[in-house]
DNA sequence: TCACAATTTGAACGATGGTTCAAATCGTGA
DNA sequence: TCACGATTTGAACCATCGTTCAAATTGTGA
């Protein structure tokens, strides 16, 4: 994982135990953030989730922002890797966008750490915020570039690919506000229905524009 | 404005000055909430925005939750009124949905108090939370019912009107995270482009389903 | 001008939560 | 078994923030 802060690196011996503890702390933090909400979660809550004391968290993380940024970093890394994989495939553009949508909804709703990716970057202070914001921007660009490519190919039609990308990402990100595992539909189904709606919104007008249907 | 808390009503003489002060406080609170973020805004910040002291806020509002709920209540009232007006019109269903979308984006981004409507209801405690959640649910139902009506009429096609409604509302609500007044496009333009994309996503497959085009 | 209600002030209080760190405990290799 | 590094504890500290309220100030009607 790329070091994302510019302060002197916190010196923790990279023992197997330390690596495992950091992973456990990040996972616990994500669960509690998701369950209680970001702002209602304190360091004591995260520590309690692991039957440890808050002081211990500071052995592995510089401060709360450091911990939160690691959570978001990991989530964004997962999304970016998934995005690269999908972009590298030779599927049609519309199908690629659809798969991006499904993967996004799945990852932010069904996997920890996941739900915090770029959702509340404003809860971070500098320099963590900038680091995460850049990763987030890179992820948004994936959507915009894919939409632009679709417009070039003639299979999408939109006046402003960036606005379309933001609309799509908004729909996807807002799912963490209302979707709960264990309901009538799982995140994959939600993702697929979102993909149908949102991709159709782009392709429909391309079809009616070029008259071929 | 309907009294939304069940605690004994805070006794403030309804003088012209008091009414004007509450309005000014709500407007200032919305501005600061919007500028700094809900959780980074304290009572002292809101008071400072009006060159007054935090203690004074407690003359007009029971507590911070009361103030926040008033903000959200006002925003939701505006949205619900606009929704009722649009539903009462005799425009085609797709056009009505489009107008709802535009009005929503405009209201949450260009008007104070606006941006806080149902965005962070989880920041409220009971009984304020329940009151706002009910209003919010009523507003979501407007979208779902309109989509269901469109499906019945054959101009929309979707497997799950509720999921479609949530996708649309997610796209709309997320605009407060990234849209800033003064950019290349105003909120109305953003709203119109959203409407094109999202309504097209519903109508497109209805067209391809019934084969008439 | 005065009495009184309305309104504002601003210091203080209590709770919360991030953070620190000396001491204690644990784990490991010799 | 022991020394030493790794890790954890947990109380304390400090800052912040919501809230209170006695006192002061302002506004208004008689």
Helix amount of chain A, in percent? 55-70%
Specify the overall morphology of chain A.
Answer: elongated
Mean pLDDT of chain A: 87
Number of strands of chain A: 0
Task: Give the N-terminus to C-terminus distance of chain A in angstroms.
Answer: 48 Å
CATH superfamily of the domain at 71-210 in chain A: Tetracycline Repressor, domain 2
Number of helices of chain A: 8
Largest interface: A-B, 39 and 39 residues
Q: What is the CATH architecture assignment of the domain at 71-210 in chain A?
A: Orthogonal Bundle
Word description of this protein:
- Two copies of one chain form a homodimer.
- The first copy, chain A, is mostly helical and 213 residues long.
- Chain A has a domain at 71-210: Tetracycline Repressor, domain 2 (Orthogonal Bundle).
- Chain A is 69% helix and 0% strand.
- Chain A contains eight helices and no strands.
- In chain A, α2 packs across α3 (54-60).
- Chain A is elongated and about 60 Å long.
- The N and C termini of chain A lie far apart (48 Å).
- The A-B interface holds A 37, 39-40, 122-123, 158-160, 163-164, 166-175, 177-178, 185, 190, 193-194, 196-205, 207-208, 213 and B 37, 39-40, 122-123, 158-160, 163-164, 166-175, 177-178, 185, 190, 193-194, 196-205, 207-208, 213.
- Chain A binds a DNA duplex (30 and 30 nucleotides) through residues 12-13, 15, 17-18, 21, 42-44, 52-56, 58-59, 63-64.
């Amino acid at each position: 994982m790329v070091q994302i802060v510019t302060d002197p690196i916190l010196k923790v011996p990279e023992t197997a135990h330390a690596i495992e503890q950091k992973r456990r702390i990040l996972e616990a933090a994500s669960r509690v953030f998701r369950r209680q909400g970001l702002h209602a979660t304190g360091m004591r809550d995260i520590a309690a989730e692991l039957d440890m004391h808050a002081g211990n968290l500071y052995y592995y993380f510089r401060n709360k922002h450091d911990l939160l940024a690691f959570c978001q970093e990991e989530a964004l890394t997962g999304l970016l890797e998934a995005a690269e994989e999908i972009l590298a495939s030779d599927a049609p553009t519309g199908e690629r966008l659809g798969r991006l949508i499904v993967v996004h909804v799945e990852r932010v709703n069904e996997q920890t750490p996941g739900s915090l990716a770029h959702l509340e970057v404003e809860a971070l202070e500098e320099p963590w915020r900038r680091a995460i914001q850049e990763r987030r921007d890179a992820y948004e660009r994936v959507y915009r570039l894919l939409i632009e490519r679709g417009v070039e190919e003639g299979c999408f039609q939109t006046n402003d690919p960036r606005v379309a990308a933001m609309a799509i990402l908004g729909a996807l990100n807002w799912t963490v506000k209302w979707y709960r595992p264990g309901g009538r539909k799982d995140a994959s189904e939600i993702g697929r229905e979102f993909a149908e709606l949102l991709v159709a919104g782009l392709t429909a007008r391309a079809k009616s524009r070029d008259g071929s249907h």
